[in-house]
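Support request, please re-run this one:
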Amino acid sequence: MPRAPIRTTAAAGLLLLTAAAAGLPQGPAAGTRAGRAERRIASWSADFRQTAEFTRYGNDNTRLDDWTGGDGTHSVRLPDGRTLWLFSDTFLGRVHAPPGPHGDTHHWRTSGTGGTPSLWHNSAVVMSRSGRARRTLTGGGAAAPGPFFPDPPGGGRRWPVGARVEPRAPGATARVVRVLLWRRTPGTGPWIFGEPHGTEVATLSLPGLRLAGITPAVDQAAVPDPGRRVLYGTAVVPVGGWTYVFGGDDPPTSPASSAYLARVPAGRLADRGRWRFWDGARWRRRAGRAVPVLRGSGRRGVGASFTVVRDGPAWVLFTMDTGGDGSAGLRVITSYRAGAPQGPWRGPHGRLTPPRPPAADPRHVAVYNPQAHPEFTGGRGLLLSYDINWLGPPGVPPGPRINGAVELYRPRFLRVRLAPRAP
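Re-run finished. Output below.
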């Protein structure tokens, strides 16, 4: 299985996720005692309510130019209480009730006119304060929609990841949404879905959520080996006067990536001159000086997509257990813990095997891209999403399978409770 995301022209695909501990913490936030930062997965359960809301919205044919499925699944709470959900490759069109064209018992999707459903490289869904998905944001017009964040000049794609609400300018009262984007350019061989190019920052106006511009943040085009280029933004964690931004490389011949760390003064994500990168001892201006805070090696590592949250004094990282045995990297979520964002990261600890939708051959139903949504955290525990895809036998394209069973390409949700680790 190739290390890069597995995608087809009819379906978005898969980022394998893993994690390994490396590096000693120094500098700000590194003094937290390890004993106070011990956290474990105490319990978890499926969040059927949140999963059902995206099922309802995806199946609703009130409009035929809106979201019927997607992966990526990042979110940000807006100042007025709405939530903006960000998706990478996205299906638009119509959803039909069963039976399908081959007698299938699943809801199935087509374009608005009945042909192959449209697939765009990104979209956004706006959810009301009450938790109801209301509308899809795309580019272009109603007659010819396109990706909300336009494809780069010359080809390639942009995938939205972490996002924050910030002042429009330092000291300003007006606020905007900053969305980190992974930019990929056309490639061949293991890069048939695009070589990693760099990280950009999009600015959205409030409250209208109009795209005001896209600026570069971390350009990696000068790194000769595409597999060593680091894309930042899989997790964005604000702490005090800083925003910590985690990222990963994307080696095509290994299931395990390494995790890297940058930080930016609060409110300055769009100011590329204020980004600093952890080099193992201090924060550096040059991205090329960064070293992994979690090094991919052996049976432990992280993939290009993972998620990080704070729980009291602890930092907790969730990732697919791609370092585990067999197909654990497509079934099992595990966690790592640290007392500071720089590490040292300890683990893996705990194993979640989240529910997958029924399928004729469940071996080919993949789980990937766990993402935390702390804005929904309350007495029920941390909300964690995961994406679902179908990876069929060699030579069998996933497009028809995903088009014929809509639940195979939509996020699902868990509630995870963390607790202090027993001594």
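The two ends are 40 Å apart (CA to CA). Helices lie at 48-59, 398-403.
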